[in-house]
Amino acid sequence: MTQPSDSMISVEEARERILAFFARLEPERRPVLDALGQVLAEDVVAPFDIPPLDNTAMDGYAVRAADTTGAGEDTPRELRVIAELAAGAVPDMTVGPGEAVRIMTGAPMPAGADAVVPFEETDEPLRGVNERPRKGGTVRVLKAAGVAANIRFRGEDVRAGRVVIPAGRVLRPSEVGVLASLGMSEASVYRRPVVAILSTGDEVTEPGRPLQPGHIYDANGYSVAALVRKYGGVPRLLGIARDTVEDLTARIREGLDADMIITSAGVSRGDFDVVKDVLAREGSIDFWTVRMKPGKPLAFGAFAAPGGRRVPHLGLPGNPVSSMVSFELFGRAAIFTMLGRGDWERPVIRAITRDEVRNVDGRRFFARCIVTRGEDGRWYADLTGPQGSGILTSMSAANGLTIIPEDVPVAHPGDEIDVMMLDWEHAP
């Protein structure tokens, strides 16, 4: 850990110093559904072919394609129906010349057949709801079928012995489905980090309790916990510590079995901002102010834990917008690193600002904005309103953050700027 410093450093240097402390956590075995969003720790090798047998992709009739040559509405080809196959059945018949087997989607193809004619291309009458099919001993084919028509062949999706999902892949719903198709009920994935979250301040009240004069409710603890959960971590709320070294120390010690501790407030220069003091006494500290707005005060260090462990600590500012923006820039990257994910960087697009964005104090300005596409196909950014770091609704209304560089004092309406996207359903 480097020596504490009160000089402002860049966002990039702050992130680099934070991420240098973190590494991917150990693997664990999890039920495949619970592992959604986690990173696969080992290659998944197929134990068998999928599909395991040639089967039909349609409800219809398994036939010999040659028997349907020339078939049409005016020139039907009549075939004798010798059997019926449902999905899961094992065929014990062979389709000979002039024969067909009535077959349901997913059923194995019978020997001798090399095509499937859908019901709608035959003279089998359509049936209504709750009406039994009207089957006969023969069927007329009204359209010629090519060889292999409507057949799913053995191993066309997965071949036995091949890597189906490589280690390092984030498990999405599609990967969960593939694992289930291989008969796997569990997967080896890198563990989710447990993040202990502690709010601080004599004026802070737990939601649900009566609010005393001069007090505020704990928005920071819940917004940060929600971000931790959103990005794949397991949040553990430690409650609210009062502005004393003793109470703060006791609360922090309750979270020393976590993978990271996050506090909000107490990292500035006020008389009661004691987080950095406890951090220095209970562990090591690398304290800085970051050249960004909002979120200038930030503390990072590590608490000493039983067994020689060092638990990293991220001390967020007390203003709710500063707390959330700081977490987006630093906490998210730390969680992704512990998860084994390298894709923590947010997408950045170029957008035209419709508002004047002033940046008066030489810090990088992350103003809250809403990005939309104009009729000309270009992206436009509108500020969400007043940009005070205590206006939490400005984060609720935003889907992006402007990135106004330190050396740009103002972005004028019509200027093209960088925007870091947050919640965004439409890719550029």
Write the layout of secondary structure elements.
Blueprint: E1 8-9, H1 11-19, E2 27-31, E3 44-45, E4 55-56, E5 60-63, E6 77-85, E7 99-103, E8 115-118, E9 138-141, E10 151-152, E11 163-165, H2 173-181, E12 186-190, E13 194-200, E14 204-205, E15 216-217, H3 219-230, E16 234-241, H4 245-254, E17 260-264, H5 275-282, E18 283-290, E19 292-293, E20 297-304, E21 310-316, H6 320-339, E22 348-353, E23 357-358, E24 364-365, E25 368-373, E26 379-383, H7 393-396, E27 400-403, E28 410-411, E29 416-421
Parallel strand pairs: 1-18, 6-7, 13-16, 13-17, 14-15, 17-21, 19-24, 22-26
Antiparallel strand pairs: 2-12, 3-11, 4-10, 5-7, 5-8, 6-9, 18-20, 20-21, 22-29, 23-28, 25-26, 25-27, 27-29
Structure write-up:
By secondary structure, this protein is an alpha/beta fold. It has 4 domains: 8-25 and 192-339, 3-Layer(aba) Sandwich (Molybdenum Cofactor Biosythetic Enzyme, Chain A), CATH 3.40.980; 30-48 and 164-190, Molybdopterin biosynthesis moea protein, domain 2; 55-152, Molybdopterin biosynthesis moeA protein, domain 3; 348-421, MoeA, C-terminal, domain IV (Beta-clip, Beta Barrel). The chain has 7 helices and 29 strands. Strands 1-18-20-21-17-13-16 form a 7-stranded mixed sheet, with helices on both faces. α1 (11-19) packs across α6 (320-339) and α3 runs parallel beside α6 (320-339). The longest helix has 20 residues, at 320-339.
